[in-house]
Structure formats: structure tokens, C-alpha cells
């Protein structure tokens, strides 16, 4: 079996008395779109913060692209090819969309880079051509989300951590984000998604990890997870229709 791109082995994160991530093991295969779902406070963002090195693990190991990365700095992990697209984008407000994406291309994974080509590709992939000269200030939530995804992928990551990219979007904007995520995967970037929009998760994911109170309680394809009684009890409440 080929080694997954990202692997968490028995990862625990404690904040004083609170166990935010409790002995979580999971593997994200290269080329997949995987999702982390679970109720508010389940520990999904904490997992992102551990993978990016923003928080140190309390126990366990994280491996990425064949290297152990827990204990490395956020900068070192970004250089290895992990990028995160935040739910609340914080672009440079006075700069254009294009310059904000270019800044993403100036950082990120180490190795040869062509900043202009990466900028152009990310703008095209996220459908931002008509907005390239617009100031980031004043963009709609949907366009800010696309800018945030473009900025992140311009950094040429191997793995994109996408933090609730569909939050607050209307159905057509959500469809656009799903299309963008699929195009990102087609470009060879593996995606790990945290998302509360279950319709979007079910449509876009190859596999899903379900987190509840810090623990992984289920994993599988969307169909498997939607039918899992533990998941329905903890999170979904009612079966999800495709
Ligand atoms: N820096 C921190 N210090 C103390 N407790 C924290 C910290 N970060 C998260 N927590 C706690 O850890 C638990 C998991 O939080 P986390 O943000 O990972 O959940 P989540 O699944 O991402 O929730 P949501 O869906 O609401 O974003 C919560 O109880 C939260 O209050």
C-alpha cells in the first residue's frame, strides 16, 4: 500500500484539563478530497492547528509526505507543502485580488517556483479573472472565499487544508466552491476539508472522518458515513439524502 500523504497516529491534544483531540488516527491518501465533520467543539480546527504546527501535539505523531512533522514550525511545515485556506479570509485590503494571490505565490512550498505562472493559474482555477484588478476591500463573502483558496493554492501546496469554505455561502456560490475544490484536486493537490454544509461534504468528499468530543467515531465514504448509526446519533440527526 502506498503511504498516505498525511497520517495522524494516536494524536492527542490537551488544553489543561480539556482533551480537544483524543487519540485520533487517520490517513489522507494522496489525490483525495477528505473531510473532517463533527459538531461544534468536536476538535476539527484543533486537528488543523496541529497539522500546520500552529499548536504542538501533546501525544502522538503526524507524518506528511514521508516525514514526521509534529514538532516542526508552521513555516517549516508550509515549506514542505501544507497550506491552509481560512474561513475568515484576511487579505491585504488595499491590494488588488491579483496582488493578494501573488503574495501567496511568493511563499509556500520550497523549490523552484514561477511566481507569475502560479499567480495566473490560481486566479484562473478560482474563476477570479474578472476581479483581478479589484481591491480586496469590498469583495463579497463568496469572492473573498475564492480569493482565499487562490492565495492558498498559489503557494503550490501538496495538501490544502480548507476551513469551512462553504460557510455563509448561497447555493450557487457553494456549487462554485465545490467545483473549485474538484479542480484543485485535478491539479494534484490533496484536500482536507472542515465543513458544516453536509450537502457539500457529501458531494465533494471521497472519504469522511467523523469527530465527536475529540475522538474519531467513524470514517468511510459519504454513503457509509451517512448510514452509520453512531454518526446519526452524534451529528447528523437524520439520514442525509444525496
Ligand atoms: N487554544 C485553546 N485553548 C483552550 N481550549 C481550546 C483551544 N482551542 C480549542 N479549544 C477547545 O477545544 C475544543 C475543540 O475545539 P475546536 O475549535 O477544535 O472544535 P471544532 O470542531 O473546530 O468546532 P467548530 O465546528 O465550532 O469550529 C473546544 O472545547 C474548544 O473550546
TrEMBL record:
Q: Which InterPro entries match?
A: AAA+_ATPase, ABC_AA/LPS_Transport, ABC_transporter-like_ATP-bd, BCA_ABC_TP_C, P-loop_NTPase
Check the record and name the CDD domains matching this protein.
ABC_Mj1267_LivG_branched (cd03219)
What sequence ranges are listed for the domain ABC transporter? 6-238
Domain of life here? Answer: Bacteria
One Pfam family per UniProt: BCA_ABC_TP_C
What transmembrane ranges does the database entry give?
A: none
Q: Which GO terms describe its molecular function?
A: ATP binding
Q: Which UniProt keywords apply?
A: ATP-binding, Nucleotide-binding, Transport
The protein depicted here goes by the name ABC transporter ATP-binding protein
Please tell me the species this chain comes from. Marinibaculum pumilum
Q: What is the lineage of its organism?
A: Bacteria, Pseudomonadati, Pseudomonadota, Alphaproteobacteria, Rhodospirillales
Amino acid at each position: 500500500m502506498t503511504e498516505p500523504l498525511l497520517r495522524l497516529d494516536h494524536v492527542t491534544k490537551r488544553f489543561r484539563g480539556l482533551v480537544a483531540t483524543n487519540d485520533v488516527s487517520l490517513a489522507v491518501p494522496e489525490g483525495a478530497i477528505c473531510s473532517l465533520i463533527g459538531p461544534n467543539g468536536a476538535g476539527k480546527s484543533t486537528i488543523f492547528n496541529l497539522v500546520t504546527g500552529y499548536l504542538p501535539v501533546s501525544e502522538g505523531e503526524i507524518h506528511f509526505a514521508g516525514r514526521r512533522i509534529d514538532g516542526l514550525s508552521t513555516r517549516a511545515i508550509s515549506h514542505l507543502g501544507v497550506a491552509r485556506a481560512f474561513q475568515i479570509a484576511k487579505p491585504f485590503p488595499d491590494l488588488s485580488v491579483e496582488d493578494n494571490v501573488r503574495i501567496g505565490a511568493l511563499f509556500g512550498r520550497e523549490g523552484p517556483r514561477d511566481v507569475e505562472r502560479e499567480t495566473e493559474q490560481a486566479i484562473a482555477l478560482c474563476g477570479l479573472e474578472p476581479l483581478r484588478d479589484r481591491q480586496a476591500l469590498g469583495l463579497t463573502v463568496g469572492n473573498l472565499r475564492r480569493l482565499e483558496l487562490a492565495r492558498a493554492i498559489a503557494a503550490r501546496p501538496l495538501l490544502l487544508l480548507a476551513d469551512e469554505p462553504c460557510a455563509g455561502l448561497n447555493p450557487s456560490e457553494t456549487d462554485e466552491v465545490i467545483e473549485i475544490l474538484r479542480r484543485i484536486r485535478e491539479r494534484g493537490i490533496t484536500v482536507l476539508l472542515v465543513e458544516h454544509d453536509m450537502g457539500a461534504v457529501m458531494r465533494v468528499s471521497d472519504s469522511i472522518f467523523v469527530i465527536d468530543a475529540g475522538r474519531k467515531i467513524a470514517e468511510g465514504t459519504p454513503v457509509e458515513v451517512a448510514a452509520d448509526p453512531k454518526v446519526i446519533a452524534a451529528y447528523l440527526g437524520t439520514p442525509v439524502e444525496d
